[in-house]
Amino acid sequence: MNKNNPTEQHQDSETKWQPCASGDLSQFVSVMKKRKQISRFITGAEIVTACLIIGMVGFFGMNQLSGPSSQTIQVSTEDSEKFCPGGIYCPEVIDHAKDYVSNLLDQELTQKIEAHLVNCPHCQKKVDQLRANMDNNAADQKAALLKQAKWEAYLLALNQ
Q1: Is residue 2 situated within a structural domain?
Q2: Single pTM value for the model
Q3: What CATH number does residue 138 fall under?
Q4: Is 49 found in the same domain as 94?
Q5: Helix ranges restricted to H, 67-159
Q6: Which tens digits make up the pLDDT trace of 88-135?
Q7: 57 and 110 share a domain?
Q8: Within the chain, how many helices (H) and strands (E) appear?
Q9: Do 42 and 101 belong together in one domain?
């Protein structure tokens, strides 16, 4: 090293360029190809997962829109008015449905059931079907189905 020339630098043997050993570049290329394959696989898995999640959300969302489920809702007594239209629960309405259709109930219970039916399409559908079956009239059955279809179309319009 020349002390008079500060631009001249001492180079260690480690920093000098040396040719690659045979097989180093092919090994490097192989590793990079494997990384690229893994990256594509992960991207594909992410896309499939996203599609499954969207499909599940759509499926369960449509089930919620299609009508009440068969699951029982647990409510406290203070919240019971929210889930009890007309002051009477769905199972009670269904139990009294035949007598209601036959006009065999007292006025108070009839009014409760009518108030419930206004706010509960599930029970209204059951009562309409019961009326149609009791009369065994095709026109009544068609009218009940048409009423239910209109109600479902109304609900769908509200949710869009």
Answers
A1: no
A2: 0.37
A3: 1.10.10
A4: no
A5: 90-101, 107-119, 121-135, 138-159
A6: 888 999 999 988 888 888 999 999 998 888 888 889 888 888 887 776
A7: no
A8: 5, 0
A9: no
Query: Any idea what DSSP says for residue 73?
Result: P
- Could you give the number of structural domains in the chain? 2
Contacts by residues 151-159 (CB-CB < 8 Å, ≥ 24 positions apart): 151/121, 151/124, 152/66, 152/67, 152/121, 155/65, 155/121, 156/65, 159/65
End-to-end alpha-carbon separation of the chain, Å? 82
**For residue 106, what are the domain limits?**
90-159
Q: Which of 115, 143, 139, 116 has the alpha carbon at shortest distance from 128?
A: 143
95 and 46 in a single domain? The answer is no
Alpha-carbon span 124 to 148, nearest angstrom: 9
* Cα–Cα distance measured from residue 125 to residue 131, given in angstroms and rounded to the nearest whole number: 10
pLDDT confidence tier of residue 79, bands split at 50, 70 and 90: very low
Alpha-carbon distance 89 to 117, whole Å? 11
Mean pLDDT of the chain: 77
